Amino acid sequence: MTDPPRPPERRSPAATAVVAVVVGVLIAAVGHQLVATELHRQLWPSWVAADARHDEADAAYDQAAARAESAASRTESLEAVLTPDLVGEDDRTALADALVGLRSVLDADAGASRLGIVDLVDPDAFAPAWELYADLWEISELVPERAAAAASSEAAAEAVLAAADEVDAATETLITGAQEVARAELAANPSATTETRRVLEQLVDGGGSGTDAAAFTALATAVADVRASHAAEVARAEAYPVRAEIEAFARSIANGVALDFAWAYEVAGLESDTWYSGTAEFGVDGGEWGLITLSESIEWAWGDDPNAEAVVVHEVGHTQVIREACRALFEQAGSDHESWATAWAIGMGYDLPGSGIEAYGRPTDAQVAAAAQCR
């Protein structure tokens, strides 16, 4: 026996309405979520670009400010050591004005904006629609804010760099002017020693001078040394006219090799009371110049004993090996310095004990012939 069939269930109109409302709400919620997500996705790249530009502008300003601060500090140190004998008033004033301008820009504090970090929903993470809508509102304000801040930082960096460039240009002009004055000192002080002159020449012609305080101090020191050396050499020539005559003679036969001189009672361990003696240093720093030291006894006997003159010629002969025209001849003669200097003196007509024969023996005829070609 079976149960009779049940009649179909019927929902009340009220229940149906509730279901419809729930479904509608769900559809609306899903729709809002989709719309919010899509809008957030589309707007996110503009935020990323604006934020990146802002960070890059801040970093660029930091670099510009660091360079400018370095230039300002370097220039302040330079100003402290400038000397009126090397720097014209116009150049000094131009540098001071440029430095004031740079400090003004740096002190204006118109640099990087330093906007803070913001907390936004990651587009790859889920967030409810109301959070996304809140982000959208915030991003719409943040993007122009970041753009304005970036533009401000960029403008500030340009202003700082422009001011730093003006300081650099003024510094370069000042140093160039100082080098020109220093170069003129070489001509104004012809009696300065080759050693002091070479230091200054390297600074003004060899690219050895910079634009900072240390470089200017080195230039000023080199100029002072040249001036002092010239004054000392002039005074020495007046006080010791025979020495000046001997030095002039040595230079006249040196074939362009620049020579400095020193005098002493004892040279190479030999005292002036019993010996004529001398030494020669040459090619000390790769240059074609030499330092000859002579005993006072040569001064005493000058003009009376040709052996004293022969010693001087021997020492000049030593310096000739640094001349390009004589290097191969030096090797041809055996590359022995004392034999070479003796042979050179003999070839110059000083076939005397003082030419080096007494101290080192007579060189061969072949060595004399080779050295005689070095003229």
Your description of this structure?
With 375 residues, the protein is mainly alpha-helical. The chain folds into two domains: 22-114 and 123-186; 240-372, no CATH class. Helix content is 67%, strand content 6%. It contains twelve helices and five strands. It has helices at residues 13-81, 89-107, 129-188, 194-205, 213-239, 241-252, 296-301, 306-319, 324-332, 337-347, 357-360, 365-372, and strands at 258-264, 266-267, 270-271, 278-282, 289-295. The strands form two sheets. It has a three-stranded mixed beta sheet with strand order 1-5-4. The protein has a two-stranded antiparallel sheet with strand order 2-3. A hairpin with a 2-residue loop joins strand 2 (266-267) and strand 3 (270-271). Helix 2 (89-107) runs antiparallel to helix 3 (129-188), helix 3 packs antiparallel against helix 4 (194-205) and helix 3 runs parallel beside helix 5 (213-239). The termini are far apart. Residues 14-29 have low confidence and may be disordered.
- Give Rg in angstroms: 44 Å
Strands of the widest sheet, in order across it, are: 1-5-4
Task: Give the helix/strand class.
Answer: mainly alpha
What is the ordering of alpha helices and beta strands? HHHHHHEEEEEHHHHHH
Mean pLDDT: 84
Number of helices: 12
Largest sheet: 3 strands, mixed
Would you count the extended β strands for me?
5
Tally of individual domains: 2
Approximate shape: elongated
Beta content: 5-15%
Indicate the percent of residues in helices: 55-70%
State the low-pLDDT regions, or none. 14-29
N-C termini distance: 149 Å
Transmembrane segments: 12-35
Keywords: Membrane, Transmembrane, Transmembrane helix
